[in-house]
């Protein structure tokens, strides 16, 4: 086992990994940018090193991070999610420097990080994929339109190297193709430095169901059940449920077997996720594989009792996976909501700033993974997610009750957060009965907007109109 692990990340996931290190009696090394000096991961780690004054470079300069790891005697690097976690070149350099990468091999990251290559590999191995095309960059608009008509509208354009919901465009007819293709390519180039785009059939009313995979270095691979991540805004997850309340036991068993086969086809080691789309007839399709720990791993930990981060570290250190698929038991349901520092009424604009009061929800089966505290100032340079609230109960219905209770308890002052919006989701009648797909949020946005955050100008206009009617001016 390692004696020291460097964490190439920040925020709640860095804190989560430090906790896993402490549980395993491993020393943790935090890295940080200058503005992160007061951040929780810096305070909690066994030792902390500033990598750069630049807020982003500190977490993206792979060479500098490897330097720190070597000079402080760390034996392994945990990348968390985001930042360099899916950067195959960084993973390779870590290994070349004589350090252990806590994740799958760099060749697997490269292959699965390329959505097009991943689709091809899956198809070759008999895994169902969404019907789609090759990279279309070299095709003329006429040719692309012909392909779209052959697949059948609506179609979805995707950046092959995309992630985090970026570089995705839904196209409903010929007239929308050119503009969306250009926008998709531009976004892909800006975010992923590669504008390769391909086309897929848009699955109507789909549910996003993913399977957690865990493997060791010796070819043993199992899944730890599924998560329903259908509740999304702009292709980004906001609420996740494990296991999905919307699929049958039979479908779960079949999808789980396919997920393990997909991971085996990729020669996968360590933790990863196979994402599927499920249509309203219960047909399912491989969408992509994420070769890192996911934001929503906590709900899987809660229902299975399996410490995923701890297991990632142990697997990377060479431990054998001492568990068969049939031994994976699970209890009840867990729900996670992502609490973001955002102004919901103002198009979910990030709302960083100083936290003046912080009272996290507590009590049985309530877990909060966060990295903020009272008087902490959230910097504007990073993701707006500041906490993940996770609840568990014996049934989905009781888990929803607990979610409402915990969200009502959770108090954060000084900044605007998504808590009131999440509470409206928790109280929604369709959410209560598991009636959701990936269009749920979009179709209910107005209904779910918290009262106090409805645009003040709209209220003023409505009041003025009401007075005008009453006064007979209309
Ligand atoms: P998850 O499935 O783990 O929820 P998300 O897509 O929400 O994954 O991404 C988790 C984090 O990683 C977010 O902060 C997101 O912005 C970031 N992220 C995901 N994929 C990429 C990528 N390819 N490049 C840069 N950041 C990414
Ligand atoms: P990312 O790497 O950004 O997570 P994904 O390929 O996983 O990209 O897609 C993100 C989301 O976009 C999915 O969760 C789903 O809501 C939607 N999506 C992706 N592909 C399709 C499709 N073919 N049909 C319908 N929705 C899709
Ligand atoms: Mg995805």
Architecture blueprint of SSEs:
Layout: E1 4-7, H1 11-23, E2 27-33, H2 40-44, E3 47-52, H3 57-60, H4 62-72, E4 76-78, H5 88-96, E5 100-101, H6 106-113, H7 115-124, E6 132-135, H8 141-151, E7 155-163, E8 166-171, H9 177-192, E9 197-201, E10 207-215, E11 221-233, E12 236-242, H10 249-265, E13 270-278, E14 284-290, H11 297-304, H12 308-316, E15 333-340, E16 342-343, E17 349-350, E18 353-354, E19 357-359, E20 366-370, E21 377-378, E22 385-393, H13 396-409, E23 411-413, H14 419-427, H15 429-432, H16 440-448, H17 456-470
Parallel strand pairs: 1-2, 1-4, 2-3, 4-5
Antiparallel strand pairs: 6-9, 7-8, 7-9, 10-11, 10-13, 11-12, 12-15, 13-14, 15-22, 16-17, 18-21, 19-23, 20-22
The structure holds adenosine-5'-diphosphate (ADP) (2 copies) and magnesium ion (MG).
SS-derived structural category: alpha+beta
- Across the major sheet, the strand order is 14-13-10-11-12-15-22-20
Taking all Cα atoms into account, the compactness measure Rg is 23 Å
- Net shape: globular
Which molecules other than protein and nucleic acid are bound? adenosine-5'-diphosphate, magnesium ion
How many angstroms does the end-to-end distance come to?
78 Å
The description of the largest β-sheet is: 8 strands, antiparallel
By DSSP, the count of extended strands is 23
Strand content: 25-35%
- Write down the overall mean pLDDT: 95
Q: What is the helix content?
A: 25-40%
Uncertain segments are none
User: Count the helices. How many?
Assistant: 17
Description of the molecule:
By secondary structure, this protein is of the alpha+beta class. It is built from 17 helices and 23 strands. Strands 14-13-10-11-12-15-22-20 form an 8-stranded antiparallel β-sheet, with helices on both faces. α5 packs antiparallel against α6 and α13 runs antiparallel to α14. The model has no long low-confidence stretch (mean pLDDT 95). One adenosine-5'-diphosphate binds next to β7, β9, β13 and β14. The site of one adenosine-5'-diphosphate has 12 residues, from β12.
């Amino acid at each position: 086992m390692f004696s020291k692990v460097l964490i190439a990340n920040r925020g709640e996931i860095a804190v989560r990994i430090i906790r896993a290190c402490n549980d395993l009696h491993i020393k943790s090394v935090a890295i940080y940018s200058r503005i992160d000096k007061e951040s929780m991961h810096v305070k909690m780690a066994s030792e902390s090193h500033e990598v750069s004054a630049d807020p982003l470079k500190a977490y993206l300069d792979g060479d500098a991070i490897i330097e720190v790891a070597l000079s402080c005697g760390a034996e392994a690097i945990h990348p968390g999610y985001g930042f360099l976690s899916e950067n195959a070149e960084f993973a390779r350099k870590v290994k070349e420097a004589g350090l252990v990468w806590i994740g799958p091999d760099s060749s697997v990251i490269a292959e699965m990080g390329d959505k097009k290559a991943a689709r091809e590999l899956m198809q070759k191995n008999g895994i169902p994929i969404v019907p789609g095309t090759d990279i279309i960059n070299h095709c003329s608009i006429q040719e692309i339109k012909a392909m779209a008509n052959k697949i059948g509208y609506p179609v979805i354009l995707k950046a092959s190297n995309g992630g985090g919901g970026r570089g995705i465009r839904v196209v409903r007819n010929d007239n929308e193709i050119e503009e969306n293709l250009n926008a998709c390519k531009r976004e892909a180039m800006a975010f992923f430095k590669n504008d390769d785009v391909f086309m897929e059939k848009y699955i109507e009313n789909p549910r996003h169901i993913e399977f957690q995979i865990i493997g060791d270095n010796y070819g043993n691979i199992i899944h730890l059940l599924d998560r329903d991540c259908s509740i999304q805004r702009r292709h980004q997850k906001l609420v996740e449920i494990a296991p999905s309340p919307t699929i049958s036991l039979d479908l779960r068993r079949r999808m789980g077997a396919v997920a393990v086969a997909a991971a085996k086809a990729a020669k996968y080691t360590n933790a990863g996720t196979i994402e599927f789309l499920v249509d309203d007839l219960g047909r399912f399709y491989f969408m992509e594989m994420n070769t890192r720990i996911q934001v929503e791993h906590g709900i899987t930990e809660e229902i299975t009792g399996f410490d995923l981060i701890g297991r990632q570290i142990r697997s990377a250190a060479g431990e054998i996976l001492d568990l068969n698929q049939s031994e994976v038991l699970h209890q009840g349901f867990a729900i996670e909501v992502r609490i973001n520092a955002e102004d919901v009424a103002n198009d979910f604009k990030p709302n960083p700033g100083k936290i003046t009061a912080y009272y996290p929800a507590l009590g049985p089966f309530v877990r909060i993974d966060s990295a903020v505290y009272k008087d902490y100032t959230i910097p504007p340079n990073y993701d707006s997610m500041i906490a993940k609230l996770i609840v568990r109960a014996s049934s989905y219905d009781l888990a929803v009750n607990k979610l409402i209770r915990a969200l009502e308890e959770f108090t954060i002052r000084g900044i605007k957060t998504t808590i009131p919006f999440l509470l409206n989701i928790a109280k929604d009648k369709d959410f209560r009965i598991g009636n959701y797909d990936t269009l749920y949020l979009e179709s209910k946005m107005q209904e779910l907007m918290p009262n106090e955050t409805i645009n003040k100008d709209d209220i003023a206009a409505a009041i003025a109109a009401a007075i005008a009617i009453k006064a007979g001016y209309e």
